[in-house]
Write a structure and sequence with these properties.
By secondary structure, the chain is an alpha/beta fold. Helices cover 33% and strands 21% of the residues.
């Protein structure tokens, strides 16, 4: 199949290479701003763990800097610049921005498919952000971030992948040279030096690039709504897991250790759950014998569920989501935090010297 798709890959690759060349030569200009901007992105179509990594950065900076997250707002029904407010739903700003907004009440969350316009609108606020995190914007050359973080999945490293449609890459492998930091995500919690060396050889970072390795740490299951607010059984016989994310395998591995039987129902990434979908999930749950059974989904999927007109179908059913955080191996967290803090402090100091703030 990849051989058959090669002509399409070559055409796509030529278009991407021409675009990058025009930016590199200055034919296309990239906007720069005198505020610290950190971009988190990947070369793949999705599934590298951007959301928990953005949340890691939010926790790192929000206490010391007025922090904003700017996202495209994938799957939203609105267009243009939108600032997240309390009366909005995921349909207006997207599921990931809604998750940031609900989880962190002391940051600014905004969406705009035009990242340059989005930053300009944020900086026009009465109290503009002191730091902007660009969510999934590595491929947006129209804006120049001060620090670029490139994520790649441990199970599908970008050097081993192919351009879409033959593979999962949406950009050429050579684009990785623009990254200041490369993070191999979703690695095993037990991580040997041999594996570290092997991955480093595959990625082969440039001398100016820092390579880090992160893994996912899942928390306690949380009820999606008050109607599902029941204790998690001490011993679970069956878990019905459903999700609409690109790579559900880490959650599957986590839940398999929590039960005797795991039933999985997969949907496409950012899937909008229909009445038929919810009936399917509930029926799957009701067909399971025994009482020690629950339904589990992801936090991102929960953002789309709670605003659905069909959510009442889950009334009195034990429905939970599993929060997830990013952790770094060994002493890497200190080095990672230090590198990012040094960039933000230096950029902030430089801005104050030039503007007199």
């Amino acid at each position: 199949m990849r051989f058959i798709l090669l002509p399409f890959v070559w055409i796509y690759q030529l278009i991407l290479m021409l675009r990058h060349t025009l930016y590199d030569w200055g034919v296309f200009s990239a906007a720069e701003f005198d505020v610290p901007i950190i971009c988190v992105g990947n070369l793949a179509l999705g599934g590298t763990g951007k959301t928990p990594h953005v949340e890691y950065l939010i926790r790192l900076f929000k206490s010391n800097y007025r922090t904003a997250v700017l996202s495209r707002g994938y799957g939203r029904s609105s267009k243009g610049f939108k600032l997240a407010t309390g009366n909005m739903t995921y349909r207006e700003i997207g599921d990931e921005p809604m998750q940031y907004f609900k989880k962190f009440d002391d940051i600014i969350v905004a969406v705009d498919e035009n990242r340059v316009r989005g930053v300009e609108m944020l900086l026009r606020k009465s109290y503009p952000p002191q730091l902007i995190l660009l969510d999934d914007a590595f491929q947006h050359r129209a804006i120049k971030a001060g620090l670029n973080i490139l994520l790649t999945d441990y199970h599908n490293l970008y050097p081993n992948d192919f351009l879409f449609p033959a593979g999962q890459l949406r950009d050429v492998i050579a684009a990785a040279k623009r990254a200041d930091i490369i993070v191999v995500t979703k690695t095993p919690k037990v991580f040997s030096p041999f594996t570290r060396r092997r991955l480093t050889e595959i990625i082969h970072p440039k001398p100016y690039q820092r390579l880090y390795f992160s893994y996912l740490s899942y928390g306690r299951m949380i009820p999606v709504s008050e109607s599902a607010k029941v204790p998690v059984p001490g011993r679970i016989s069956t878990i019905v897991m459903f999700c609409g994310i690109a790579n559900p395998y880490p959650l599957q591995e986590f839940l398999q250790k929590k039960c005797t039987e795991l039933i999985t129902i997969d949907f496409p990434d950012h899937h909008i759950f229909t009445q038929k979908d919810m009936h399917r999930i509930v029926n799957e749950y009701e067909n399971v014998l025994g009482r020690s059974k629950i339904i589990v989904t992801t936090e991102k999927d929960a953002m789309r569920l709670i605003d659905s007109p069909y959510f009442s179908l889950f009334k009195n059913i034990p429905l939970f989501y599993v929060p997830v955080e990013v952790k770094f191996h060994e002493s890497e967290q200190q080095s990672f935090d230090q590198q990012l803090n040094e960039y933000v402090r230096a950029t902030t100091t430089d801005r104050q010297l030039h503007t007199g703030d």
